[in-house]
């Protein structure tokens, strides 16, 4: 198509050039790109660690790497993926790009804080990569004491500092989103007209702000005990090792919702767009996000059923864990019901969304096994848990992330990705994922503990299956990297609204101008009024430049 | 069906079949809901596929009765799971009073066990068939976890305090013992086995090998060696209370609070005597931290538990 059409018009990508115009930008859309590049790097670094682990686990003996190396691999895989990919992925990339656009704002409330949060993220990442380069860390991403604070001989402090620093980036992002959503909605954009993506990010931001300081303090205490032998967690110094677990999971369980809630927000957008329908039970889906964020803070003890906490505390935590499953179930049912009497198309983002529902449902249902006290005793700290949380965090969060990247790619770049390649990738990921992680449920119930470098022979066949699946999964992840980069130059010009979506972000050119909208839009309808024309939903107000 | 590799673990304890029953209930519920959702998605996605590019389906806001239905049904089902799971859990951590008590000490990277009769084992645990066995466990260094998949039981083993779990084996044989809490470099090497023997064979096993002193006798000699008797004589002295019949009782502390004497309290009183002073006594006891090993502590506790045992039994009759 006519390439010059995009280039003649001024938009956020061509308004100025050069490395300085990116590193000192305060445009939320450009900052989203900075995050996109960084989290992609971390994703593939974390993936490399996982690849080495899966190859090692093909045989029961430890023949590829030594025990110490293996322990460092799973630790750095976890730390990289959780803190430097999963947590920032959707909020900091898609959220940064879309929160202002979806509500009709010109930028986030604090653009410079937004840029600062990226620098903080990079600083934290640099510390953690430095720890990896210096020889790595072997405590597991959970940093359990007293192993991490006293016994480990690896770079615990450097890693912990990295995670500590990065936390501030989350806090600033959350703060920015909450203020923006409260104060900067376009005229007529009432709370119940907000896209569910915004509700999900609002709920996520609450967790960012309330949870992240706790992990920061906890890791600080680990550092203090390690450096100054301050007795906090080690009993030989008068500390309590279980206290660490309480503090750690008080953040790290809600952190799971930091990873999954934004993905749920993405999926709501995708389902609505590719079935051309309002989300069934909009307000139930919206409040389910808030319910998950709130109840999610009260279930941390379900990580500690066998840790020596009181039997009665465990019972309360089990009960609350079952309760937090209900809002998730409500969401799945509502997404399914949205398809009823709709108009479904099978574009790649929709394949990701449907894949998300399948994998998230599996992850959610197996979560019930772990919430059941009697079963958890058996499967705790086995591959059953590993499989469960990968279904949620990779099957769920990464599917949502990739679905979102494909969906908004035309908006971010002005170009279309190659549709058939994208469908192939979505299928490969879905199939590869199940082949990788389903056998791990069986392994877990058989009793194979996690974090095992060598394992008894009877577990080998299932481990080989898992590794075989992982190789398919790897292809599925590399493919989008290749064709999305290709599309930047060779992709077809997308146009403002290639999906005929109704969201506000689609009512402005692709790529959008720096100020997002030429004139402030006025909203008269909810985000999913697919039965109406966009012109009936939005009118324009005064020019945005003044 | 024999695939050459297992797909389901052996059941070798009274708990195993109960856990598996709940597991199968959850599998059934999960398969039902997963199938239901997949079926609806596939049917809707095919039936309502976009046929004309300009389709504009009629909007549906939602139905309250459906929202209530699909909130209440999952809620009811999860409450069944909760109660069922909680009952099993409660039993796993409440040993019957007549359970045979075996001490387990974990360290990087091995399991050490001592039977009441004094036998020591490393990375192995021999237990009798059909008799409840309670494990009193602690760690010398980091957190470990004592895990017997065939028995469906697991318990973290913590430094600085005792945790316990119990089981009753239902099938003779050897079963895998894993450390399930990551504990450092050789974590995956911290494996062992539990050998379940017929009761008669177990007695033979106990009487074979090097016969040493029982745990109580070893504890008694430690009690003498550390000079505990100087203050904690039967009848008590002005320096320290008598320990006879103390175990399981609730005692008054300085400041008016009370504590029930269990393994963790005795342990604390030996290592950190000033933490909880019994009302009416001076804080004069020195600490024995660093002087007594984890095994020694368990032996001392066995001995202290045995003091006044005969009187207690007589009183019960």
Return the CATH topology of the largest domain in chain B: Immunoglobulin-like
Tally of structural domains of chain A: 1
The CATH superfamily of chain A appears as Cytochrome c oxidase-like, subunit I domain
Q: How would you name the oligomeric state of the polypeptide chains in this document? A: heterodimer
Q: On the 0-100 scale, what is the average pLDDT of chain B? A: 91
Task: Reconstruct the topology from this structure.
The complex is a heterodimer of chains A (546) and B (317).
Chain A: H1 4-8, H2 19-23, H3 28-56, H4 67-103, H5 111-133, H6 147-151, H7 156-183, H8 196-228, H9 241-275, H10 282-295, H11 311-338, H12 348-371, H13 373-379, H14 383-413, H15 419-446, H16 460-490, E1 519-523, H17 534-537, E2 538-543
Antiparallel strand pairs in A: 1-2
Helix pairs in contact in A: 3-4, 3-5, 3-16, 4-5, 4-7, 4-8, 4-9, 4-14, 5-7, 7-8, 8-9, 8-10, 9-12, 9-14, 10-11, 11-12, 12-14, 12-15, 14-15, 15-16
Chain B: H1 14-47, H2 64-92, E1 100-107, E2 110-114, E3 120-122, E4 124-128, E5 132-139, E6 144-148, E7 153-157, E8 163-168, E9 173-179, E10 192-197, H3 199-207, H4 215-225, E11 250-252, E12 258-260, H5 263-271, H6 294-306, H7 309-316
Parallel strand pairs in B: 1-5, 4-10
Antiparallel strand pairs in B: 1-2, 2-3, 5-8, 6-7, 6-9, 9-10, 11-12
Word description of this protein:
The two termini of chain A are 34 Å apart. By secondary structure, chain A is an all-alpha fold. Chain A has a two-stranded antiparallel sheet. Chain A has helices at 4-8, 19-23, 28-56, 67-103, 111-133, 147-151, 156-183, 196-228, 241-275, 282-295, 311-338, 348-371, 373-379, 383-413, 419-446, 460-490, 534-537, and strands spanning 519-523, 538-543. Chain A contains 17 helices and two strands. Chain A has one domain (24-273, 283-543): Cytochrome C Oxidase, Chain A (Up-down Bundle), CATH 1.20.210.10. Chain A is 67% helix and 2% strand. Chain B is elongated. The model of chain B has no long low-confidence stretch (mean pLDDT 91). Chain B has 317 residues and is of the alpha+beta class. In chain B, the strands form three sheets. Chain B has a five-stranded mixed beta sheet, covered by helices on one side. The interface between A and B is large, with 96 and 87 residues.
């Amino acid at each position: 198509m006519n390439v010059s059409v995009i280039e003649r018009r001024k938009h956020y990508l061509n308004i100025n050039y050069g490395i300085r115009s990116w590193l000192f930008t305060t445009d939320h859309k450009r900052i989203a790109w900075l995050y996109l590049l960084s989290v992609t790097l971390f994703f593939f670094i974390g993936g490399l660690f996982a690849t080495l682990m899966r190859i090692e686990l093909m045989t029961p003996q430890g023949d590829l790497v030594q025990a110490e190396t293996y322990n460092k691999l799973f630790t750095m895989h976890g730390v990289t993926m959780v803190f430097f990919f999963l947590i920032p992925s959707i909020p900091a990339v898609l959220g940064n790009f879309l929160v202002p656009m979806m509500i009709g704002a010109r930028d986030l409330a604090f653009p410079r804080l937004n840029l600062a949060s990226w620098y903080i993220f990079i600083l934290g990442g640099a510390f953690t990569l430095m720890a990896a380069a210096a020889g790595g860390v072997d405590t597991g991403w959970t940093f359990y004491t007293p192993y991490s604070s006293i016994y480990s001989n690896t770079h615990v402090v450097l890693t912990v500092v990295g995670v500590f620093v990065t936390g501030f980036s989350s806090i600033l992002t959350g703060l920015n989103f909450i203020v923006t959503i409260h104060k900067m909605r376009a005229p007529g954009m009432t709370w119940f007209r907000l896209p569910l993506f915004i509700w999900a990010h609002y709920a996520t931001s609450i967790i960012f702000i309330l949870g992240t300081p706790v992990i920061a303090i906890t890791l600080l205490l680990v550092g203090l005990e390690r450096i100054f032998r301050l007795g906090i967690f080690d009993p030989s110094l008068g500390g309590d090792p279980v206290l660490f677990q309480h503090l750690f999971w008080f953040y790290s369980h809600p952190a799971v919702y930091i990873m999954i809630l934004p993905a749920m927000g993405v999926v709501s957008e995708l389902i609505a767009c590719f079935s051309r329908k309002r989300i069934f039970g909009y307000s139930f889906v919206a409040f389910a996000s808030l319910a998950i964020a709130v109840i999610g803070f009260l279930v941390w003890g379900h990580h500690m059923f066998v840790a020596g906490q009181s039997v009665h505390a465990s019972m309360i935590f089990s009960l609350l864990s079952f309760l937090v499953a209900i809002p998730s179930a409500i969401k799945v049912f509502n997404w399914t019901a949205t398809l009823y009497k709709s108009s479904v198309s099978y574009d790649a983002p929709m394949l990701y969304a449907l894949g998300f529902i399948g994998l998230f449902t599996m992850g959610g249902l197996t979560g019930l096994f772990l919430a059941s006290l009697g079963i958890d005793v058996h499967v705790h700290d086995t591959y059953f848990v590993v499989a469960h949380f990968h279904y949620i965090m990779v099957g769920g969060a990464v599917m949502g992330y990739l679905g979102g990247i494909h969906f908004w790619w035309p908006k971010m770049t002005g170009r279309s990705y190659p549709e058939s390649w994208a469908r192939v990738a979505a299928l490969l990921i879905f199939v590869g994922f199940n082949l990788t992680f389903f056998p791990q449920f069986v392994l877990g119930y058989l009793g194979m503990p996690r974090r095992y470098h060598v394992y008894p022979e009877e577990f080998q066949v299932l481990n080989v299956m898992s590794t075989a699946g992982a190789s398919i999964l790897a292809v599925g992840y590399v493919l989008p990297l290749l064709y999305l980069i290709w599309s930047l130059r060779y992709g077809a010009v997308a146009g403002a609204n290639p999906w005929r979506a109704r969201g506000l972000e689609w009512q402005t050119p692709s790529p959008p101008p720096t100020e997002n909208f030429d004139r402030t839009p006025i909203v008269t309808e909810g985000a999913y009024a697919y039965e109406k024309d966009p012109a009936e939903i939005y009118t324009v107000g005064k020019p945005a430049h003044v | 069906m024999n695939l050459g590799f297992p797909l389901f673990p052996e059941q070798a304890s009274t708990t195993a079949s109960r856990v598996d029953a709940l597991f199968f209930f959850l599998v059934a519920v999960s398969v039902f809901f997963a199938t239901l959702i997949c079926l609806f998605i596939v049917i809707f996605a095919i039936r309502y596929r976009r046929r004309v590019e300009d389709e504009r389906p009629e909007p549906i806001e939602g139905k309250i009765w459906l929202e209530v239905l699909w909130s209440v049904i999952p809620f009811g089902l999860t409450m069944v799971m909760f109660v069922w799971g909680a009952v099993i859990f409660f039993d796993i951590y409440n040993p019957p009073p007549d359970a045979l008590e075996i001490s387990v000490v974990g360290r990087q990277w091995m399991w050490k066990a001592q039977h009441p009769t004094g036998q020591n084992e490393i990375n192995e645990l021999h237990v009798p068939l059909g008799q409840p066995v309670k494990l009193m466990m602690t760690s010398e260094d980091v957190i470990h976890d004592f895990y017997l998949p065939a028995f469906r039981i697991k318990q973290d083993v913590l430094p600085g305090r005792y945790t316990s779990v119990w089981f009753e084996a239902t099938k003779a044989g050897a079963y895998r013992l894993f450390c399930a809490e990551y504990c450092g470099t050789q974590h995956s090497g911290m494996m062992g086995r539990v050998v379940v023997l017929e009761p008669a064979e177990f007695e033979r096993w106990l009487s074979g090998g090097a016969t040493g002193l029982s745990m109580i006798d070893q504890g008694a000699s430690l009690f003498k060696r550390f000079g505990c008797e100087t203050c904690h004589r039967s009848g008590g002295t002005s320096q320290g209370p008598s320990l006879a019949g103390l175990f399981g009782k609730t005692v008054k502390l300085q400041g008016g609070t009370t504590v029930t004497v269990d393994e963790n309290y005795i342990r604390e009183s030996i290592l950190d005597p000033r933490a909880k002073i019994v009302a009416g006594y001076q804080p004069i006891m020195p600490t024995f931290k660093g002087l007594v090993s984890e095994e020694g502590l368990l032996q001392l506790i066995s001995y202290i538990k045995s003091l006044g045992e005969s009187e207690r039994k007589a009183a019960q009759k």
